Structure formats: structure tokens, C-alpha cells
Amino acid sequence: MQGQRNGARRVLPTGAVLAAALLVALPVLAQTPVMLGQTLAFDRAKGNCLTCHDIKGGDAPGNVGPPLSDMKSRFPDRNELAAIIFDETRRNPLSVMPPFGRNLILTHEEIESVVDFLYTR
Amino acid sequence: MRIMRLIPLMLLLLAAVRPTAADDSVNPDADFKAFRDYYTKRFPNVPLNDFVNGPYSMDADLRKQWQAIDDFPPYDFAVSRGKDMFATPFKNGKTYGDCFPDKGIGVRQNYPYFDDKTGQVITLELALNQCRQANGEEPYSYVKDEMASLTAYMAFTSRGKPFDIKIPNDPRALAAYQNGEKYFYTRRGQLNFSCASCHVQNPGNHIRTEVLAPALGILAAMPIYRSEWNGMGTISRRFVTCNSQVRGVPLQPQDEDYRDVEYFLSYMSNGLPISGPGARP
């Protein structure tokens, strides 16, 4: 009996920890495409756009490529922007921009999120 | 099938990026002139001999930081260790100096060379391990530590001496040169970069805070102390990490392709002074 009660008591703190973990995790689960796109664009292991492009909100950008600003007015057709991210060497064979889609660095969905994010810059 | 159709396009791209002679025949002299002209025209304010200082020749702020640390260079320990190693005989009584012309002092600028007996490109790193093995010693790792100390000392005693790489009139030497050139301009890895993507197309530009070095003279400062590595690294280490950084599969240090690239790059730098060992961020 004693043991069972102790066990029951232990459930409560565990439940509280789980609830707390969920609260921490929820914002991640509820991340908007724009937020996800920003994470991808700044993350060295994924899009890593900042390594070569200046993007408002990013620290220590590189300058191999042009600054990514006024994106919506510069690329009113979002498919054009997505195509550049997918494989810019199709348009400009000499471009050093990695073909993020063709070489499976980003999925189609991730590229769409990056476009969503870039449209806010 | 698909790759076969891509080959003419790839050759076209190769021709478009490389600042070399237009025709397809192997012509190291014409390549050399075109390569050097490309950099001197693109950076008219950089003195020719300053290209061996890599990113510091491209960026004034970076140069100031470098000059601030150069009173106590981080590669000093490697030079003195290499000097000690040169003075210490092998178990058989011979020394490193016995394996090299002029006892290995002031000869860095002559490597790599084409060896007509074996038909291979012999780099300084390869020659050092061949020396050890010929004297009954185990070879060292090519990438750092002892190897970097030996090459640091040999570079240090050769500072200011101009690169003097020779391509003998031997079809095997020309083939090695051409293979190195092809490796240099070929894209690879998940990021799809060639050596030239960064070091020909983008020298002086920043990737995040890093300044890309020009390929002209890029090996003159080797080996280098890199803050990013927290230690010394050889030419082998630089090639291996470059391949990893573009998310490609690195070759083994001193693979024939790497030796041929070193041959090509060093030939392109003929006349530029040895500045190694160097320090880089």
C-alpha cells in the first residue's frame, strides 16, 4: 500500500513536468511558415542564406550574393524566387549559389517557407 | 546517359570560369599568364607579392588584426619544433637534411616537383614521409602536428624565395598538371562548389565574417596556424577541410588528385615569394 501511494504521488510531479515540456514545445509546434523560414535561412546546417546574403535581422552576413531586401517587389512571382533557391544554376550556369532543391539541401516545403520569410524582408 | 549529355555543358562552364587560355590544348605558360592577369586586373591596388598574404591582402581591417598578433606569431612553436626535429638524427643516424638538396634549408619554393623516375608529383609533405620511411621510421599523419612542424620550419627557412615550379616537357607531367587544373575547376559536394567558386570567383568577398583568399599565391603561406582549427594545419589539411566544407567526400591526404592540384596551384604562383608559415583566422 505504502509503495502504491508513493507511486501515485510520483505521477503528479511527472505530469507537471510533461505539461511544462508541452508548454515549452508548443510555440515550436505552432511556428508559422515565416518563422520556420527564418530559422532555415539563418541556420548554418540548412539554408544558411546569411553566409552569402545580407538579410535584415541577421548577424554578420556575407556579401557573395546580393542583399535580400524588397523581395516581394523584386520577385512578384513567388515561383521565380522558389526556382532560384531550388537551382539558380539553371538560370545562371556560373552562379556559385548552391542548388538547394536539386541537391536535397532543402525540401520543397522548406523552400516555400524560406520564400514566405523572404517576402517579409 | 544523362551525364553524357551534360559533359559538353560542363566543359563549356569550365571554359567560362577559368581565366586561362581559350583553346583546349595544355598550355601551362598561357594559363599562368591568364591566371595572374585575372587577379592583377581585378585587384589593381594589391601589390603582386601581397597576394601570398591571402585574406589580409583583400581586407584592411583584417590586416590590422593580423599585424597586431604578428609580434608573437602563433606558429612560432611549430617552427622551433621543426628545427629541433631537423637537428635530431633518426635511429640510423641520418637526418631529414640528408634527404633534401641543400640539407632542406631554403628549398620549399621548389615543391611540388615532377619526378620523372616514378612519373608522380612529389610534394614536400610526401617527400618528408618518404624520407622517414627510407630511413626506417614510421610515416607521420599528413595533416598537422609533426608534419606541420617540419613544413613550417622548411617554409620559414625559405621565406622570400620565389615559387619555382617546373613542368618538364614530359606528357606525364603535363597530364598531372591538367588533372590538377581540372580538379580545381570542377564543382563537387552537396553545395556544388569548385575550388574556383570561392578562390577565383569570390576572393575578398565575405562568407559570414570570413574573407575568402585569392587562389593566386594561396599555398605560399602554408602551413598555417588557423584560429578556427586551434592549431597548425598542412596543405593536406586545407584540401581535406575544403572538401568537407562543401559537403563533399574528402580524398585521402596526398591522394594523386590533391598532389596534382597542388602542382597546378603552385605553378600558377610561380614568382611569388614563400611567406609561410602563416596565421589565418
Structural summary, described in words:
Chain A has 121 residues and is mainly alpha-helical. Chain A folds into 2 domains: 1-30; 31-118, Cytochrome Bc1 Complex, Chain D, domain 2, CATH 1.10.760. Helix content of chain A is 52%, strand content 0%. Chain A has helices at 2-29, 33-42, 71-74, 78-87, 108-118. Chain A is elongated and about 55 Å long. Mean pLDDT of chain A is 85; it is low at 1-9. Chain B is mainly alpha-helical and 281 residues long. Chain B folds into 2 domains: 21-72 and 168-280, Cytochrome c-like domain (Cytochrome Bc1 Complex, Chain D, domain 2); 76-156, Cytochrome c-like domain (Cytochrome Bc1 Complex, Chain D, domain 2, Orthogonal Bundle), CATH 1.10.760.10. Chain B is globular. Chains A and B meet through loops of A and helix 1 and strand 3 of B.
Biggest β-sheet description of chain A: none
Query: What's the oligomerization state?
Result: heterodimer
Number of continuous helical runs of chain A:
5
SSE ordering of chain B: HHHHEEHHHHEEEEHHE
Provide the helix percentage of chain B.
Answer: 40-55%
CATH H level, superfamily name of the largest domain in chain B: Cytochrome c-like domain
**CA-CA gap between termini of chain A:** 63 Å
Total individual domains of chain A:
2
Backbone CA Rg of chain B: 19 Å
Reported by name, the CATH topology of the largest domain in chain B is Cytochrome Bc1 Complex, Chain D, domain 2
Helix residue percentage of chain A: 40-55%
Total strands of chain A: the figure is 0
CATH homology group of the largest domain in chain A: Cytochrome c-like domain
- Would you identify the regions of chain A where 5 or more consecutive residues have pLDDT less than 50? 1-9
Q: Could you say what the CATH architecture of the largest domain in chain A is?
A: Orthogonal Bundle
Hey, roughly how much beta strand do the residues of chain A contain? Answer: under 5%
Following the backbone from N to C, one meets helices and strands of chain A in this order, namely HHHHH
Question: What's the structural domain tally of chain B?
Answer: 2
Indicate the radius of gyration of chain A in whole angstroms. 21 Å
Shape of chain A, please? elongated
Average pLDDT, all residues of chain B: 93
